[in-house]
Design brief:
Blueprint: E1 2-6, H1 15-24, E2 29-33, E3 50-54, H2 67-86, E4 92-94, H3 107-128, E5 132-134, H4 148-158, E6 162-165, H5 166-171, E7 184-189, H6 209-218, E8 224-227, H7 232-246
Parallel strand pairs: 1-2, 1-8, 2-3, 3-4, 4-5, 6-7, 7-8
Helix pairs in contact: 2-3
Length: 247
């Protein structure tokens, strides 16, 4: 397994500064969050890092009841797929849609839109030679795919793999053993108290990362473990912690 670092902790540095920091920290991969401001993507060619891409999150709802918003959201995620192709990345992390307050009576239709949108994006990614990996969401009002069973079901229906966010799953009450599935093709790691998705450094909360890693090894997972925390200091501590667990 390789160690990756999300750009979440390093914003608003320039991309070049972020990649320099991540490479100097000894990580193998960088997960670029495709959000404003991203400057001079060509600098990525100057680094030895491998890349994954996190599709945009802000102002996005691929399951919206509003067709214009839904189609615009799909278009923006397709742009993230295009970026992944430029970076030779095989992974594009995608958040599911959300159920707004006034959309609650129409939840079934929103769930249908979510699946249809993921299908469209998945086909686009496959045609371009990469793949999308929908992510499970934490205990928050609105997001779909908070339950891992729903995530596995989408993966099976679309014949794709998914992103397991272990910290998100912990807020939903899943044990470390319940988090692992053969459908997992990408992993996000941060820590919390099991209730709030606080994106703490690994080892600062209640998650048993040794159990998670052993479970992933048990299914033959050989992908990236992406550290997704809030500050550079938390990244450094998480990488050190993770190396000890992997070894």
């Amino acid at each position: 397994m390789r160690i990756g670092v999300s750009t979440l902790a390093l914003s608003p540095l320039s991309l070049e500064e972020m990649l320099t920091w991540i490479e100097d920290a000894g990580a193998d991969c960088c997960e670029i969050i495709y959000e404003y401001p991203l400057d001079d993507l060509e600098v990525a060619d100057s680094f030895s890092l491998d890349f994954t891409v996190h599709a945009p999150i802000s102002d996005i709802n691929i399951a919206s009841l509003n067709r214009g918003i839904r189609e615009a959201s799909i278009s923006e995620i397709k742009s993230a797929v295009d970026l992944a192709v430029e970076l030779d990345s095989e992974v594009v992390v995608v958040h599911p849609g959300t159920v707004p307050f006034l959309g609650r009576p129409h939840r079934d239709l929103i769930v249908q839109h979510n699946l249809e949108s993921l299908s469209v994006i998945s086909e686009y990614a496959e045609d371009r030679g990469t793949g999308i990996y929908p992510e499970n969401m934490p205990r928050l009002e609105g997001p779909l795919l908070r339950e891992l069973e729903d995530l596995w079901r989408v993966a099976e229906e679309l014949e794709i793999q998914v992103t397991l966010d272990a910290a998100h799953a912990a807020t939903m009450g899943y044990s470390e053993g319940e988090m692992v599935s053969l459908r997992v093709g990408h992993v996000h790691l941060s820590d919390n108290n099991g209730e709030v998705d606080s994106h703490d450094a690994l080892g600062d909360g209640a998650l048993d990362f040794r159990a998670i890693i052993e479970g992933l090894r048990g299914i033959g997972y050989r992908g990236i473990l992406t550290v997704e925390v809030k500050t550079p200091g938390e990244v450094e501590r998480s990488i050190e912690f993770l190396r000890k667990v992997i070894d």
